[in-house]
Amino acid sequence: MTESELEVLAEIRRIAADELEWSGTVEPRHDLLKDLQLDSLGLTVLAVGLENRFRIRLSEEDAQGVRTVEDLARLVAQRAAAPRTPEVRP
User: Fold this and answer.
1) Which fold has domain 3-81?
2) What residues form DSSP beta bridges with 31?
3) Does 87 score more than 70 pLDDT?
4) Would you say the pTM of this structure is higher than 0.85?
5) So what's the pLDDT on residue 85?
């Protein structure tokens, strides 16, 4: 994993422990649904926490390819590294 992915992994672990009250380990190979037992609310809490921390947006399309903690860490790290486009307000 890259340094930025490791930073995201640390944040995933923090959110899992602090906000989702997960007492087990969180490893990159863990499946978000099966191993971490996240339901739709848990996934939402995790996604919003990561969006707020890394100032990114995750979409429904993003979720299609994400199954493991490592998949999520990679996606968030890529989004955080991408150039930001300014928001256009009407």
Assistant:
1) 1.10.1200
2) 68
3) no
4) yes
5) 63
Q: Which of 70, 34, 54 is nearest to 42 (CA)?
A: 34
Q: Which two structure tokens, joined as six digits, stand for 44?
A: 């939402």
Residues 6+ apart with CB under 8 A from 23: 17
User: Rounded distance, CA 69 to CA 25, Å?
Assistant: 11
Q: What are phi and psi of 55, to 5 degrees?
A: 50, 55
Domain locations along the chain: 3-81
Q: Residue 7 gets which letter from DSSP?
A: H
Q: Tokens representing 39?
A: 């339901």
Measured between alpha carbons, how far is 50 from 22 in angstroms, rounded to an integer? 16
CB–CB of 26/72 below 8 Å?
no
Per the structure block, which two tokens stand in for 20? 């989702």
Contact 32, 68 (CB under 8 A): yes
Could you read off the pLDDT of 53-64 as tens digits, one per residue? 999 999 888 888
Nearest-10 crossing angle of helices 40-54, 3-18: 130
